[in-house]
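Quick one, tokens below. Sequence please?
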């Protein structure tokens, strides 16, 4: 394979892993905030996500699903 393509593929994989890690951290913080008494609406506003996303995270325990990655 072309060395430049290999480098680009490696950079893309690295960026995906960093993105996944940031989503996992965000999801953990969203679930923890609600568990500690913050309203779902306030958490959604602070995290810049929809209230429905907060509800979905609470149902799944904060796991990152493939839909969040695309």
């Amino acid at each position: 394979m072309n060395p430049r393509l290999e480098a680009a593929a490696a950079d893309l994989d690295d960026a995906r892993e960093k993105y996944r890690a940031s989503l996992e951290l965000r999801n953990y913080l969203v679930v923890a905030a609600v568990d500690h008494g913050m309203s779902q609406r306030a958490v959604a506003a602070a995290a810049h996500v929809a209230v429905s996303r907060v509800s979905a995270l609470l149902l799944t325990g904060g796991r990152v699903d493939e839909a969040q990655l695309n």
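The chain has a mean pLDDT of 93. The two ends are 26 Å apart (CA to CA).
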